[in-house]
Write the structure tokens for this entry.
Amino acid sequence: MKHAKRKWALMSSALLLAMTVGCSSSSSGSGTDSGSTPKDTGNEPAPSKDNGDKGTTETAKKTITITYRDDGTGEKVPLYKWIKDVASQYPNKDVEIKPTPIQASEGDYFAKIALALKSKDTAPDIVTEDTFMLNSDASAGFLEPLDERLKGWGDWTNGSFIEAMKKGVTASDGKVYGVPYNTDSRGLWYNKDIFKKVGLPEDWQPKSWDEVLAAARTIKEKAGKDVVPIWMNLGKATGEATSMQTYEMLLYGTGERLYDDASGKWITKSQGINDALTFIETIAKEKLGPPLSKVLNGQAGNTATREYLPKGKLAISLDGSWIQGNYLDNGTAPWPEYKDVLGFAPMPTSKGQAPGSITLAGGWALSIPANAQHKDEAWDFIQFALNKENTEKLVIASGNITVRADVAKDPEYTKMPFNEISTEYLKNAEFRPAQDKYPEVSTQIQTMVESVASGTSAADAAKKYAQDVTRIVGQDKTLEK
Amino acid sequence: MGGLSVSTPHIKRKSYTWLYFLLPSIAIMLLFFIYPILLTFFYSFTNLALTGEAAKQLKFIGFDNYIRMFQDPTVRISIWNTLVFLIGSAVIGQQVLGFLIALLMKHKSKVFRRIIGTVVLAGWVTPEIVCALCLYSFFGDEGTLNAIISFFGISEVTWLFTVPMLTVIVGNIWHGTAFSMLVFQAALDDVPNEIEEAAVVDGASRLQILFRITIPYIKETITTNMMLVTLQTLGVFGLIYAMTGGGPGTSTTTLPIFMYNQAFVNFQLGYGTAISLLLLLIGIILSLFYIRSLKE
């Protein structure tokens, strides 16, 4: 009897033990403890778990891991194919190049790499950084400054890289934290077939916002209700695409900016903000845009480029130069006719004032994390991977614009249908503020745009934006115009 | 008797055997539960961030996060949404539906009970994220529900966009009702048949039996279940995040979603932890309320 009771007691305390473990792990999962487990959250992508092990055995090859974003298409991601291809030709056979993608939405990718870069156990040797996050990650001390190494690289110093593009990888401390491999411009993609049908010019060059709206109204009137006149990303779910492709393209087109470089302050109130929001309001009110249930969705960008445009269900799309990458034979939505059907017009300034058209430029870079295990080997590989030949392969496969002047002149590159004009738009290119508060301000922009798109008045949305930005950057860092 | 019995006075004084048994679980509670909470509490007073200048240097910023929280209109919206979601899906939805199912199943044949039980349980055993995807495809623009109603000639509705809160509430009811059903089944089985039979003999109607005998008899179970379901629902994240992402706008942004956005989209971990403590506070207040009503 006694024996049985003790056994019972032991068992119940063991059970209790198991339960507490269960409870505590689930409670930390539900968020009571979001701060203390960076390693846990990083272990799913596990960029370089086996990295350390391999480094310790002398005979084994060193593994250089490269982390990039996988949008869920796996081996179809242009970067994956490119890394495999470049690695197979890499002359140094002592290192093994290993792609270690992070499968995530665009927004989650930045959180996931920030977590991975924090620790030596999870940091990859090379990471692809969106240039707008580069400054934040550099300020956080996650990235290795490359200035010393760049001095010894001929391609960097002899003008092969377009000088303006170096600005995008320079953080606010003046140091360079990455080697850019692509950039992009933005403009108005339009379907010439639809334009022809409704009597609009096939060689469309709108001179002001009014002309864009006029074209959209004509399409709404004449093209039938299955055709969406104009598509812009309008939701929070599309993240940075909403801020950059929609709002900033409009705001910068009014001549106004987000951030005043001279005074170092964020502009929270200006006529430009009102004009940009009024444009969105007009589109929402007159129902010139896509159905809200489609556009306020994380998949909105893909819906527009992979479904609506090719099917002739969308007339005008304010989007990036890279969307043609989808339509290539090896792309996610092959559409060989796109060369003839699509046109790419520059986005006009609000009233056609100088410089006449506007584009924002972004782009991606290869960086070396401060916590990387094999920095020298990583640097050697970057120099090889981003030489003229290899960058060219990448920008062609992904439909991006090159950051190298020598590639820009290459016939192989210029024969891609829209590359020449996309590159030309870059001459009026503006960059997003290289401020580490930008990503946070950007989410307020998305909130503001989404609220206007779903019915809030432009004035109310602008007022809320001013309050939110003031709270984020502090009263002394704001400016009203 | 072994050393387990604490109630015997002369053993209590000198034997601490019970403590040895509890020690491992206390240690684990401290390490995995109390410590993270304290740490969260600490971080909520800092500018802890995922990236940017603040990620390099942790700074103590006093009550800034809390002040910001009280000034932030989205926090108010999130609290409201959390309460609507809680009352709609847990307190009313899961409880009432779970109770009704349990009640209707009482005294039914074993086969019937088993079939219905399995069907309801299916929603519960399905992992949250699978559930969310099923419901997303059910309510989606080209989803099952629209296919059904358009078959009957009713024009399609963009459910996730027009009535987003309703869809996540229905989702959570579908996912969680089985738990309440099981709890109430057990409780209803405990109600002695004799009492009910006696009431029938006295001429009580079925409704009278339900409200005068059955419900008062299982009152404690109702309160306990209410508390469990409330706490479960307060923390629901995956279901809402996958179905609507907290949108459109802020219409389904509950506190967990808002906290996630602040911590991992805006990279403000410090602010995120402050919000998580607000959530904890709401949980504690509601639990105290339930425990109190249990005592009465």
